Amino acid sequence: MNPGVAWIAVDWGTSRLRAWAMGHDGTPIADAASEAGIGRLAKGGHEAALLALIGGWLPPGRRTEVIACGMVGSRQGWVEAPYAAVPCPPLDSARLAAAPAADPRLSVRVVPGLKQVAPADVMRGEETQIAGFLAGRPGFEGIVCLPGTHSKWARVAAGRVLAFRSFMTGEMFALLSEQSTLRHGLSGWDDTAFGAAVAAIRSSPGELAATLFGIRAEGLVAGLPPGAARARLSGALIGAELAGVAAFRRNEQVVLIGAEAPARAYAAALALEGVAPEVQPAAAMTLSGLARAHSCEGMRA
After folding, report:
1. Which of 87, 147, 282, 294 is surrounded by the fewest CB atoms within 10 Å?
2. Using CA atoms, how far apart are residues 208 and 293, in angstroms rounded to an integer?
3. Contact by Cβ (8 Å): 110, 100
4. What is this structure's pTM?
5. Is the torsion defined by CA of 207, 208, 210, 211 positive or negative?
6. Domains, the chain, ranges and CATH?
């Protein structure tokens, strides 16, 4: 137990659960993570999974507020937090969904995701990172790119998400590198091969499928090194994404919010187009967004 805990921030995705114990001064005093992602839990197992991670932080005799974001608010999550439709602010504390908890020490609220009706699109978790970024940059206008399993490109102005596009680039890389014929001979990294693949597909996106098979073929007949093969696969997929988002992105300023490795890859790809994006760490922006939700909820209460 930590008597200094004021509230708890939770980022709960499909494969992972992460939590921060927040002190009364607004800074984290402890953090923990587990593999108890939403996709790995049986129905009704959410409270037990959360308590297994944060139970030792909960002061006895009072409810501790937990603000959570991510897939915990999906149809398969603890409670379904209805999407807010864009254009709208990335986060509205009045729309937080209360999750049912039997433990009297818990008061759990979940941040809703965002939806776009046409073209149809959704996000959960990324809206909190955007809100976290805007908490420090309220006047920002431009594009926020969030690389990940399903990367997002969101147009932001006047504190609102106006529109966004999603790409399955990260999931495609995982599937192709782990389950397809390309899985043989992929390891390491080659910056030159990555840049060449981005440039080639950026100019001829229709060649993507042929380029992907060519990675395997070149490994068999010409000894393509594993590092170059892996980098070429990533570069081809990211290059196709950049081609697909070009009309949406136009020439606006770009901010990247992501984990170190994917953010570095996207920054390198954008640099080939003469774009120097600002880079912000995903975890810090998530925590900032959750803190924003907590402070607004506290003022509303």
Report:
1. 87
2. 41
3. no
4. 0.94
5. positive
6. 1-78+97-111 (3.30.420.300), 125-301 (3.30.420.310)
